[in-house]
Amino acid sequence: MDLKIVSDDSNIVRLQVSGRIAQKQTEPDDEPIAMLLGKQGYSRKALLDLSKAEYIDSSGVSWLLVAHKRFRAAGGRLVVYNIPPLVLNVLKVLRMHLVFDLATDESDAERKLEGPAS
User: What is the per-residue pLDDT across 26-85, written as a single tens digit (0 to 9) for each?
Assistant: First the structure.
């Protein structure tokens, strides 16, 4: 998994994941978001683009769930968007679409950032 900052303004940080979102791609104790933004990064509004994600397994879903919880606990917000069909199907089978803030595209994700959290 490759996670990078696409843009960062004072209000919203835009992140993008590419490759496989799986345990084999990261170390168990890695916090890729904190490595990019610092621990205080979880207090921000963030948009996570998955358009280049090839695959997600249960450990990848776990990583997203932990990130989602860390954002909420710190007063921030994470919205995931541009989700490929294969990844979206996994999230739906696991009923994660009821937990995560999911959006179809970037403009939808920006609107969700301003609305109530899931």
Answer: 555 668 899 999 989 999 999 999 999 999 999 999 999 999 999 999 999 999 999 999
Check if the beta carbon of residue 37 is closer than 8 Å to that of residue 7.
no
Q: What is the pTM of this model?
A: 0.91
Spatial distance between the Cα atoms of 89 and 95, rounded to a whole number of angstroms: 10
How many CB atoms sit inside 10 A of residue 10's CB?
A: 6
Task: Tell me the C-alpha distance between 99 and 118, whole Å.
Answer: 6
β-pair type (77-81, 12-21):
unpaired
State the DSSP string of the chain. -EEEEEEE-SSEEEEEEEEEESGGGS-TT--HHHHHH-GGGGGSEEEEEEEEEEEE-HHHHHHHHHHHHHHHHTT-EEEEES--HHHHHHHHHTTGGGTSEEESSHHHHHHHHHS---
Domains of the chain are: 2-114 (3.30.750.24)
